Amino acid sequence: MTEPAPTPIRLLLADDHPVVRAGLRAVLETEDGITVAAEAATAEEAVARAGRGDIDVVLMDLRFGRGMGGAEATAAITARAGAPRVLIVTTYDTDADTLPAIEAGATGYLLKDAPPEDLAAAVRTAA
């Protein structure tokens, strides 16, 4: 008797740049056990979408064009019971940029120039 396949890790990609979301999707959809369930172009959309209960990990940008920022969105997402994990994916690597997101409840952060295998490993670790 074969064991059923494990449930894939369901991702929400939250970034205001369509090309970045498409790149993350392209990299992560090649990984076994990971599926991109949704995308959000604003932090507000990410908060609303994460609240539906069918997301395991949110890949969250720190800075959006206008409105709520990534750290604020992270706090709103992680404040809910049964919340998904939030992994910050950013170009900014200073403590002043990343520390507020970690303090807001992010599981960790990864720089956007990280190798694709590091991204997949970070998603699995966060889940």
Main attributes of the structure:
single chain; 127 residues; alpha/beta; Rossmann fold; five-stranded parallel sheet; globular
Strand and helix order: EHEHEHEHEH
Largest sheet: 5 strands, parallel
Helix content: 25-40%
Q: What is the total tally of β strands?
A: 5
What number is the mean pLDDT?
Answer: 92
What's the helix count? 5
Any idea what the CATH superfamily is called? Response regulator
State Rg: 14 Å
How much of the sequence lies in strands comes to 15-25%
- The tally of structural domains comes to 1
Straight-line distance between termini: 27 Å
Unreliable segments of 5+ consecutive residues: none
Shape: globular
> What is the spatial order of strands in the main beta sheet?
2-1-3-4-5
Which CATH first-tier class would you pick?
Answer: Alpha Beta
The chain-level structural class is: alpha/beta
Instruction: Specify the CATH architecture.
Output: 3-Layer(aba) Sandwich
* CATH fold-level assignment: Rossmann fold
